[in-house]
């Protein structure tokens, strides 16, 4: 599900409340101030030795068609979240990647040619210049006409299901591995990731309420995540309650001061670049409604690296653990 990069911030009252006030949750960090999620650093760790692809393979693409892959020496794996390239790397085939999307930011991939532009659109010309032997993508990236152009040029295009949930990570891994002719590595990696997710810490007692805000100050975009946005799954996995879901929101919706005040989040979760785009915590507190929330009064703002929170890939277990630590931290 792609981020809805549209909408406007609806204005409301902006008075400042009393400091040090928490909402219904038991917030041990109510006076701790801002924090940062210690997201995974470095490159994804391959599940084992580089596997030898068994080709050709014919797989069912998520759009319903059968695709035959005969060559995986030059792989382009792209989507909105950067997760597909991480999966290829964690399968032990990272040396076969020939390009990247803007969300693929792990160190080994940064030098790869960028094939996505504004809005995560692909350029058929830019992709074909890389001479990929297979393209793996999902519906979060496009436009569809470009994917059709790639198919017409003879490049196999395999689409993976685009659900951004924790249970979907394993099927995504196995689908990518099948398309690359390394199903055994896919099963091993999926099992390893599942074990990590099961080991993530849960909290007890009254859960804190966390609101995920998608911020792009330079473009005037201010959104709040709700059910199905992806951020809700991460917040819940970290042992907290998602504010947007509690408000009855689905996906990403324009942020309103009234809605945010009514949600009364204990913690505001934002991406690091988004926080920077509004002038840091001080700038965030100037947005209508933010200062009236328990999170605003206590400056309980947690930022996370842009390439980590919504990746839903091999390192999501580590991200959930780090998110739980940041949300539930004590001073």
* Second-tier CATH architecture of the largest domain: 3-Layer(aba) Sandwich
- Beginning-to-end CA distance, first to last residue: 36 Å
Strand content: 5-15%
List the total number of helices. 12
Average per-residue pLDDT, rounded, comes to 89
**Which spans of ≥5 residues are poorly predicted at pLDDT below 50?**
1-23
Principal-axis shape: globular
Q: Main β-sheet: number of strands, strand sense, barrel status?
A: 7 strands, mixed
Highest CATH level, the class of the largest domain? Alpha Beta
The CATH superfamily title of the largest domain: Nitrogenase molybdenum iron protein domain
| Range of helix content | 25-40%
Rg measurement, Å: 21 Å
Count the domains.
2
CATH topology group of the largest domain: Rossmann fold
The count of strands amounts to: 12
- What is the helix/strand order? EEEEHHEHEHHEEHEHEHEHHHEH
Coarse structural class: alpha/beta
Explained architecture:
The radius of gyration is 21 Å and the shape is globular. The chain is an alpha/beta fold. It folds into two domains: 57-198, Rossmann fold (3-Layer(aba) Sandwich), CATH 3.40.50; 203-328, Rossmann fold (3-Layer(aba) Sandwich). Strand 2 and strand 3 (66-69) form a beta hairpin. The chain contains twelve helices and twelve strands. Strands 1, 7, 8, 9, 10, 11 and 12 form a seven-stranded mixed sheet that branches. Helix 4 (169-179) packs antiparallel against helix 5. Mean pLDDT is 89; it is low at 1-23. The protein has helices spanning 83-93, 124-129, 144-152, 169-179, 183-198, 231-237, 243-246, 257-263, 272-277, 280-284, 294-297, 316-327; strands spanning 35-36, 57-60, 66-69, 75-77, 134-137, 157-159, 209-216, 221-225, 241-242, 252-254, 267-271, 301-304. 30% of the residues lie in helices and 14% in strands.
């Amino acid at each position: 599900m792609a981020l809805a990069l549209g909408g406007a911030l609806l204005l409301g009252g902006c008075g400042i409340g009393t400091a040090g006030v928490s909402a219904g949750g038991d917030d041990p960090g109510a006076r701790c101030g801002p924090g940062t999620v210690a997201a995974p650093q470095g490159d994804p760790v391959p599940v084992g030795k580089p596997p030898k692809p068994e080709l050709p393979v014919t797989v069912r693409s998520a759009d319903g068609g059968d695709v035959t892959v005969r060559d995986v020496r030059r792989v382009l794996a792209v989507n909105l979240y950067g997760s597909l390239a991480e999966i290829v790397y964690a399968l032990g085939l990272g040396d076969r990647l020939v390009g990247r999307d803007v969300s693929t930011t792990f160190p080994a991939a940064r030098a790869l040619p960028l094939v996505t532009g504004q809005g995560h659109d692909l350029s058929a010309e830019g992709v074909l210049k890389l001479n990929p032997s297979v393209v793996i993508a999902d519906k979060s990236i496009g436009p569809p006409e470009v994917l059709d152009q790639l198919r017409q040029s003879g490049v196999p295009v395999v689409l993976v299901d685009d659900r951004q949930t924790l249970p979907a990570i394993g099927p995504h891994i196995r689908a990518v591995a099948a398309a690359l002719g390394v199903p055994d590595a896919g099963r091993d990696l999926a099992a390893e990731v599942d074990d990590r997710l099961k080991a993530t810490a849960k909290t007890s007692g009254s859960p804190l309420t966390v609101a995920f805000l998608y911020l792009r100050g330079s473009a005037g975009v201010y959104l709040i995540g709700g059910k199905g946005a992806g951020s809700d799954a991460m917040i819940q996995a970290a042992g907290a309650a998602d504010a947007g879901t509690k408000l009855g929101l689905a996906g990403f919706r324009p942020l309103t001061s009234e809605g945010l005040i009514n949600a009364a989040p204990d913690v505001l979760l934002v991406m690091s670049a988004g926080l920077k785009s509004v002038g840091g915590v001080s700038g965030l507190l100037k947005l209508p409604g933010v200062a009236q929330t328990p999170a605003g009064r206590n400056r309980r703002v947690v930022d996370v690296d842009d390439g980590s929170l919504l990746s839903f890939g091999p390192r999501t277990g580590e991200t959930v653990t780090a998110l739980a630590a940041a949300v539930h931290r004590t001073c």
